[in-house]
Design a protein that fits this description.
homodimer, 283 residues, alpha/beta, Quinone Oxidoreductase, Chain A, domain 1, Rossmann fold, 2 domains, six-stranded mixed sheet, six-stranded parallel sheet, 28% helix, globular, ADH-like_C (chains A, B), Oxidoreductase (chains A, B), oxidoreductase (chains A, B), ER (chains A, B), EC 1.-.-.- (chains A, B)
């Protein structure tokens, strides 16, 4: 009876569920909960090895929103962009995997702040979506580019101020080559390197020194203290029609393996979610 | 009539001199000056293309101190360590090129703060110096090590909190592999990469993400606002016998080429300085 994300932590996943029975005075039947729960239509939670599980107020939004743009992906995008990158209106922002769960949210925060935003993605459909649905200033299919340095130079004639990196590898190298002085790189993921050590980024560190570039790795979980501020800002954006949801929902527990593999092959468009149960009427 | 550093900026260098004649009401005969001046026993300064030149109070120290530990190298070490690395007492600090002009000062600041400090250098003499003169907790000759990952693991069984990087390349990779969560890398120089692009560092960026590592390139010149604070702190350390000078002085303008080449070959021990003129009685 849960909606689960594709993010698997061996025993569990970040998801939303509904309480069907409770022996814990803090939770009542029909409460919604969010946090680390197990992969299953029904599961018994006993605090799950100390992992976070708390009550959820859906605030009138579909439950899936709370594992995506109002959940951990959203917090990761919000904290990474605002806390790490410290953006200013008008700055030039590049986002890789820009149609991914975090990337598309970063891009929307950046657009709403008044930044110039260009994103990379891995298919013509995704690129079209970024430009037409999300109003990016530019988007390109990295698979069609042979020289990423030149590609970024074309899209950023005035240089990149902020790079929100979800992929690592050669894209990170090209981004650093094209960065302005005092540029900031939020390192959120390195999906191009996960399965191939040979693809590790070897950025020009002399550039990093002379341009005083900051590269900061981070995890959304470190920013739980920002959750209320993040939810409030994001809900405002959604209600004002300035933030759009991009979800890719698979149905059934049996879809978990293909959903997970698909993340690494770039099949997902937006947040990959597995809807484990159909018993939740409003998700 | 100048003491000059080995840092050449095409037309000039960071150095100290004495005014022999002045048509500028701000400077009088026999004033000491510090800043960007030309390579020569005597030179005419007209503000040198807007570069910084100001009066110097030697405060009873040899003039050479003011191009080294009380000059730009010192400011670079001070700002890089305190502003970028934000060290805390007891933290584990690794410094590469630790007998170099900036590295040896960073290490001394770190020791004075109560950090555990290990440095790398390129000769047995330098390593001995680091351990015996500067009281490092450990030092090693990187040329004698075949597996830097294991070397750093040996010297940092509890991991590295701060890496002050002067060399880049494989040392940066090994340092990142051995860093603790929330580790900080101040990227001051990448001397191993200057002449060979093939030696660029390809650190494990997955480590950077999961361990929330920050890598920050910087230039000392951005921290001129800290100059008074830096000088005051450093003078206190010197007068208390808690900071030692490590200089490598060549004599005569004709020594500039070999001094400069020597920097890239690791011949210098401490701050490389060229004493251009013998007319300054007290330098």
């Amino acid at each position: 009876m849960f909606v689960l994300t594709g993010f698997v932590k061996v025993i569990g996943a970040y998801g939303v569920g509904k309480v069907v029975a409770s022996g814990n005075p803090e939770f009542e039947k029909d409460d919604y909960v969010v946090g680390i729960i197990s992969w299953g239509e029904y599961s018994i939670s006993q605090g799950f090895m100390g992992c976070w599980l708390s009550k959820l107020d859906p605030m009138g939004f579909p439950l899936s929103y709370h594992v995506g743009l109002l959940g951990f992906s959203g917090l990761t995008a919000y904290a990474g962009f605002f806390e790490i990158c410290k953006p200013k209106k008008g700055e030039k922002v590049f986002v890789s995997a820009a149609s991914g769960s975090v990337g598309n949210l970063v891009s929307q925060y950046a657009k709403n702040l008044g930044c110039y935003v260009v994103g990379s993605a891995g298919s013509p459909y995704k690129v079209k979506l970024l430009k037409e649905k999300f109003g990016f200033d530019g988007a390109f299919n990295y698979k069609e580019e042979t020289d990423l340095d030149s590609t970024l130079e074309k899209y950023f004639p005035e240089g990149i101020d902020i790079y929100f990196d979800n992929v690592g590898g050669v894209m990170l190298e090209a981004a650093i080559s094209n960065m302005n002085s005092y540029g900031r790189v939020a390192l959120c993921g390195v999906i191009s390197e996960y399965t191939d050590v040979g693809k590790r980024a070897a950025p020009n560190m002399l550039n990093v020194v002379y341009k005083r570039i900051m590269i900061q790795g981070f995890l959304g979980g470190d920013y739980m203290h920002l959750f209320p501020e993040f939810v409030s800002t994001t809900v405002d954006h959604i209600r004002a029609g300035k933030m759009h949801v991009l979800e890719d929902i698979s149905i059934g527990l049996e879809s978990v393996p293909s959903a997970f593999v698909g993340l690494f092959r770039g099949y997902n468009v937006g947040k990959k979610i597995v809807r484990v149960s159909n018993d939740l009427e409003d998700c």
